[in-house]
Automatic annotation (TrEMBL):
<keyword id="KW-0343">GTPase activation</keyword>
<feature type="domain" description="Ras-GAP">
    <location>
        <begin position="77"/>
        <end position="128"/>
    </location>
</feature>
<dbReference type="InterPro" id="IPR001936">
    <property type="entry name" value="RasGAP_dom"/>
</dbReference>
<protein>
    <submittedName>
        <fullName>RASA1 protein</fullName>
    </submittedName>
</protein>
<dbReference type="InterPro" id="IPR039360">
    <property type="entry name" value="Ras_GTPase"/>
</dbReference>
<dbReference type="GO" id="GO:0005096">
    <property type="term" value="F:GTPase activator activity"/>
</dbReference>
<dbReference type="InterPro" id="IPR008936">
    <property type="entry name" value="Rho_GTPase_activation_prot"/>
</dbReference>
Length: 128
């Protein structure tokens, strides 16, 4: 077994550490070894669905204003945001609206066809 003090981890930061393994029973002449842990700590508050209903309605609005705003502030968490948004839109059977709208916007903002979807955007992350 191994122990990791979760209080040492900072929200949003990645860790890459080696932890010594130990055993409850004595191991004669055997070194238990170590375990490398690469992790990123994030915290999610899970609440009843009705707590999210108004926010979900905002996210699902046809114009996707909230989705665009979230994509501008998500930074390194773009993959996490894309996964969450896709789950929400899939659940409501609106995934084609999300993908079509974001991709159409991406196309309309690009002048050169050769550079389409080259940037790492929410649209390109969702398409992966």
């Amino acid at each position: 077994f191994m122990r990791c003090q979760l209080s040492r981890l900072q929200k949003g930061h990645a860790t890459d550490e080696w932890f010594q393994l130990s055993s409850h029973i004595p191991l004669k002449g055997i070194e238990p070894g170590s375990l490398r842990v690469r992790a990123r700590y994030s915290m999610e508050k899970i609440m009843p669905e009705e707590e999210y209903s108004e926010f979900k309605e905002l996210i699902l609005q046809k114009e996707l204003h909230v989705v665009y705003a979230l994509s501008h502030v998500c930074g390194q968490d773009r993959t996490l945001l894309a996964g969450i948004l896709l789950k929400i839109f899939l659940h409501e059977k609106l995934e084609s609206l999300l993908l079509r709208t974001l991709n159409d916007r991406e196309i309309s903002m690009e002048d050169e066809a050769t550079t389409l979807f080259r940037a790492t955007t929410l649209a390109s992350t969702l398409m992966e």
